[in-house]
Amino acid sequence: MRRSRSLTALCGVLLLSLACGGGGGGGGGPVDPGPPAAALTFTPGGTAGGNVVLLTRTGSTSGRDLELAVEAREVTSLYGVAFDLGYPASVLSFEGATQGPFLSSGGFQVSLQVAEETGNLIVGVTRLGAVGGASGSGTLVTLRFTAVGSGGGDLTFSRTRAIDPQGQAIDDVAFVGGSVQSTF
């Protein structure tokens, strides 16, 4: 009889442990790692042969924000630039632009104008007044984007123009874009 009570108690403990997930901490199945971390990466199209290039400036800890610098490289007497920048609107949302220090170096006033159409920015940045152009390298403008979807695409320049202080086109300035990839 004693043995039968012990066996009954043991069966009760086994049934209870099976009903409650078996103990042992984790339920016995694989642990769901959750969704992958958000990531937004930019790959420059290269800087070889480009006088105005798009480069990564900074990212954020969230993995969804991206700042891209439009950089002048080895230019001479640059007064201003104008361009369209196409971007994948299903992946990125344009958040804003900030004037870079290159054209304002020496204390000159600069005008930055940005208009947005879905998937395209129209940008103009120029010195103001009867002053000379800037020579060397530096940031013309910083563009801020946020990822709005997963995928990828190119950031491409079109309708590009670089001018000297007399308003004449500087024909040997090449604009180089890049590509973006987003996952979240």
Characteristic terms for this protein:
184 residues; mainly beta; 6-stranded antiparallel beta sheet; 5-stranded mixed beta sheet; 1 helix; 10% helix; elongated; disordered N terminus
Write up this protein.
The protein is 10% helix and 51% strand. It is elongated and about 70 Å long. The chain has one helix at 2-19; strands at 39-44, 52-59, 65-78, 80-86, 92-99, 110-117, 120-127, 134-147, 151-163, 175-176, 178-183. The strands form two sheets. Strands 1-11-9-4-7-6 form a six-stranded antiparallel β-sheet, with no helix packed on it. It has a five-stranded mixed β-sheet with strand order 5-8-3-2-10, with no helix packed on it. β6 and β7 (120-127) form a beta hairpin.
Give a quick precis of the structure.
The chain is mainly β and 184 residues long. It contains 1 helix and 11 strands. The radius of gyration is 29 Å and the shape is elongated.
Low-confidence stretches: 1-25
Radius of gyration: 29 Å
The best one-word shape is elongated
Strand order of the largest sheet: 1-11-9-4-7-6
Order of helices and strands: HEEEEEEEEEEE
Helix content: under 10%
Largest sheet: 6 strands, antiparallel
Total helical segments: 1
| Total E-strand runs | 11
From the helix content, strand content and strand pairing, which structural class follows? mainly beta
- The rounded distance between the terminal residues' Cα atoms is 63 Å
> How large a portion of the residues is in β-strands, by DSSP E?
over 45%
The average pLDDT score comes to 84
